[in-house]
C-alpha cells in the first residue's frame, strides 16, 4: 500500500471535505477522489459516506483512521531508529508527563539530555494518566512519566523517587484556607472537584472516603478549568500539591490532608516493544539520574 494513501485519508478524515483536503494536500480534488476510491478497493471496505458538502467516517473508517495513525507513527519511529544508527544520537523522542511536582524536573532532564545530544528533538505532551497510557498504547508516545496509582501490567516501568502530597486547593478567601491541614469532616457540604480517572477515584475511596460521601460536583482531567472554578465560584479541588507548583496563583492555597497521603511517580514504556538506540540511551540517562 502506498503510504501517501494513508496521509490522504487522514487529512480527509480531519477536515471532513474533499475539496478542502485536496487544497491542503496540494493536489486536485479529482485526484484525491480517485485515490480514496482506490484505497477503499484495496482494503475491501467502505471508509467514507459522501454527501454534497461533507464526508463522514463509517465504522470501518473510524477503525482504519486509528490504524493509519499507528502505521504512520511506526514508520516515523523506524526512520528515527535508522537515523540514530547512522549518526551520533539524533531523532525525535515523544515524551508524556502528568502535571505534578515531577513536571519541572522532567523539563530540566530533557533540556540536559538535549544539551548533550543537540540533534535530539522532543515532543513533550502533558495530560492525565489515562490519556498518556492511551498515547503509549497507540505508539504516539515513547515514554510517559505517570503518577501512581498506575495499572502497570501492560508496561515496563521505572520507579522514581519523587512524591506529591494530596490535599485541597481553595481560594485564599475560603474559610478552609486558614487551616494548616484537613480531615474528611472539614469537607462536609463543600463543592468538590475530583480527578476523573477511575483508578484515582478508587484510591481516594480507599484512603479518604467513599465517593458517595464526598458528593463531588465536577470530575476533571487537568487542573486549568478547576482552578477557574476555585478562584471564581468557591469550589474546592481535591488534588496534589504539584498542581500549584505548575499553576501558581497568588489567590490559591493548598491545604494537605492529615494524616498525610502521598503518591509516587513512575516512568513507563510499552512491554514487548523493542527500544531503538535513542530510546535506550534516554532510559539509561534517567536510570543514572535517579541512582
From TrEMBL:
Domain of life of the source: Bacteria
Species of origin: Ligilactobacillus agilis
Zinc is among the record's keywords: no
Family statement drawn from the similarity comment of this UniProt entry: Belongs to the LysR transcriptional regulatory family.
Protein name: LysR family transcriptional regulator
Record's GO cellular component terms: cytosol
Keyword match Chloroplast: no
Domain HTH lysR-type positions: 1-58
CDD domains the record matches: PBP2_LTTR_substrate
Taxonomic classification: Bacteria, Bacillati, Bacillota, Bacilli, Lactobacillales
InterPro entries per record: HTH-type_LysR_regulators (IPR050950), LysR_HTH_N (IPR000847), LysR_subst-bd (IPR005119), WH-like_DNA-bd_sf (IPR036388), WH_DNA-bd_sf (IPR036390)
Entry keyword set: DNA-binding, Transcription, Transcription regulation
Amino acid at each position: 500500500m502506498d503510504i501517501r494513501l494513508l496521509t490522504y485519508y487522514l487529512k480527509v478524515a480531519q477536515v471532513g471535505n474533499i475539496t478542502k483536503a485536496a487544497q491542503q494536500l496540494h493536489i486536485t480534488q479529482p485526484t484525491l477522489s480517485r485515490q480514496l476510491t482506490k484505497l477503499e478497493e484495496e482494503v475491501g471496505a467502505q471508509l467514507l459516506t459522501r454527501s454534497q458538502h461533507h464526508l463522514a467516517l463509517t465504522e470501518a473508517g473510524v477503525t482504519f483512521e486509528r490504524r493509519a495513525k499507528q502505521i504512520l507513527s511506526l514508520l516515523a519511529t523506524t526512520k528515527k531508529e535508522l537515523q540514530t544508527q547512522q549518526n551520533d544520537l539524533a531523532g525525535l523522542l515523544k515524551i508524556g508527563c502528568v502535571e505534578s511536582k515531577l513536571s519541572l524536573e522532567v523539563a530540566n532532564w530533557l533540556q540536559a539530555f538535549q544539551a548533550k545530544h543537540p540533534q535530539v528533538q522532543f515532543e513533550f505532551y502533558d495530560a492525565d494518566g489515562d490519556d498518556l497510557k492511551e498515547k503509549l498504547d497507540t505508539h504516539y508516545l515513547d515514554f510517559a512519566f505517570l503518577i501512581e496509582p498506575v495499572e502497570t501490567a501492560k508496561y515496563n516501568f521505572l520507579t522514581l523517587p519523587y512524591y506529591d502530597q494530596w490535599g485541597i486547593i481553595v481560594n485564599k478567601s475560603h474559610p478552609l484556607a486558614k487551616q494548616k491541614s484537613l480531615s474528611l469532616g472539614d469537607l462536609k457540604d463543600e463543592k468538590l472537584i475530583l480527578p476523573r480517572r477511575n483508578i484515582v477515584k478508587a484510591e481516594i475511596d480507599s484512603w479518604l472516603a467513599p465517593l458517595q460521601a464526598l458528593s463531588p460536583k465536577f470530575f476533571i482531567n487537568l487542573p486549568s478549568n478547576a482552578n477557574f472554578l476555585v478562584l471564581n465560584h468557591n469550589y474546592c479541588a481535591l488534588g496534589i500539591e504539584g498542581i500549584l507548583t505548575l499553576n501558581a496563583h497568588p489567590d490559591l492555597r493548598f491545604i494537605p490532608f492529615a494524616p498525610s497521603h502521598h503518591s509516587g511517580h513512575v516512568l513507563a514504556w510499552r512491554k514487548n516493544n523493542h527500544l531503538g538506540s535513542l530510546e535506550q540511551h534516554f532510559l539509561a540517562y534517567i536510570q543514572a539520574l535517579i541512582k
